Fold:
Amino acid sequence: MQTRKTILFLHSGIVLILLPVLISGQYDPEDIPYDDCGGSDDQMASVRLTGCEEDDICKIKMGDVLTLKVKWKTNQAVIVKLQGKLEVQFFLGFKKEVEVSPIDACQYLKCPLSKNTQIEYVANFTVPTEGILPGEGRIWWKGYEESEDNPLLCLNFLVKIQS
Structure:
């Protein structure tokens, strides 16, 4: 009888801990853990990268074409345009900028975007085959309106670069 009460107590505790996360919709097993590197929106985001749905550390191959999806709710009053910058960091912190397509997310979003709008930035990019080295690295992404020096959102996450 005591064991059953203990199990019920533990079960209730787990439900109470996970309930806010489940209700808010912020957690999804396909989301990638990331580090926040600042921005004026500075909110929790949902980050996904094709091919990284089941790994603790994303394994990406040089030459692969990948899709990055970043979702967040904006705090800005109005966003007229939304652009993205992507860099792959490798070996001792060296970074290489990577072209993303489309650069301007307003090609598929209805801009201007108002405050408290749920944004889903989607961009395709090719992992460089030159100018980077295999090994552990990071992908850095900034979403910005006018200047990448003043991003709306900035995040980075760990990857394993394979040749």
